[in-house]
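This section describes the prediction task in plain terms. A model, or a person checking by hand, is given the sequence of a single protein chain and must write out its three-dimensional structure as a string of tokens. No templates, partner chains or ligands are provided. The sample shown here is typical of the held-out split.
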Amino acid sequence: MKDRNLPAPAPLDRPPLVKLHATLLIALGAAALALPYVVLMWGERPASIGFAWDFSVGLGFGAMALVVVQFALTGRLRWLTHPFGADIVYLFHRYLSWVALILMLAHFAIFYIWHQPALGVLNPLEADWELTAGRVALGSFAALVLTSQFRKPLRLPYEYWRALHLALAIIGLVAAIAHILGVGRFTDDPAKRALWLGVTVGWVLLLVWTRLCVPWWQSRNPWRVVANRDEGGGVHTLELAPEGRPLKHWKPGQFAWLAIGRSPFSLKEHPFTISTAPDKGPTLAFSIKPMGDDTERLVQTHPGARAYVHGPYGAFSVDRSPQADGFVMIAGGVGITPILSNLHALQARADPRPVVVFFANKSEDDIAFRDELEGMRDTLNLTLVHVLEDPPDGWQAESGFIDRALLERHLPQDSRDWPHMLCGPPPMVEAASGALQALGVPARHIDSEIFDLV
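The expected answer:
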């Protein structure tokens, strides 16, 4: 049953506007990738040396365009991430970084195989500076991509990895632009040099915005930890009260970057879901499970500690589906936090629509927010299904894994067109998504939150 008295979503969250916004951003991204080719082919062009040469140069410029776009994708620009969700944008950034690296390697390999004399000597003490700059750029970007992809196997602490990531990105981009301008074959007139000057200026402005302007604003609007609650299952909730401006334009299910007891100019901040709802603000709650890196320290935070918040981000929200007849939510472990935030919002609004929540954990001791979730049955039209991988003797709820048969036992037939919101470890999300589609749920009605953003 639809309740026409439900609060309307913010204007930018109306589905047609979100789709239009997304379409415009995709078009802008395509134009940004095409612009170097348009400018470089404008006017008088140098004589062709051969297909392999020209193709390799084209790959190099394509890789450079992708690298520049990467800085925008990771600049935490809300107007850019809003239609897709910051988690999707960051995932796209990961994949795009591999594409850029492959293009760079192909650019170098084609010259090495068909035009090796053009590469000169490899010794940087004897090689032309512009060629050495190109190799520095290639090495920097390769190290950046590999250390990001394999950060956990390499056991790189999060804060060291972030500093390394930033340093390699700066070195790589500066070296790449120096290489392009130094070679000069396709950048030998003012219009073409202006393109790379504009790219450089834009990149510097973005860097100043993200690393100086945003932290300065955070320093002017600090938060204070007012409570640290043990929620069970190893999860602790830090409640924060604003000492400056409260968070604006915040929707249930979103996340923010959180730094505790550090300068906002440091690189030691983490993305966490805001586990309560804006309807219960202005305080914020971040529910954290120690999983390595700095989270062990964060869960031991004492009330009174100063904090800095940057957000909100994300699109994993019931506010994206204001006309839905109900919701299906599937969570695994600490993936319950964005689900909980959305439930808080529905509860605060006295929303009568049915909600079916599946909560998967390994054991009974791992269930976080158990009492709070059970209590929501009294104020929400909530069906709560606990699923344990290793249930204790006498366990009365579901056991094993979330599969088609389990879902079919609990989901009403008319739920196939409801929004289905999934958050948890990737294997669980993948299996649950497959089971839902096997039940006849269209893929467009299945939304998942990236569980491990960094």
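For orientation: The chain has three domains: 11-218, 221-313, 323-449.
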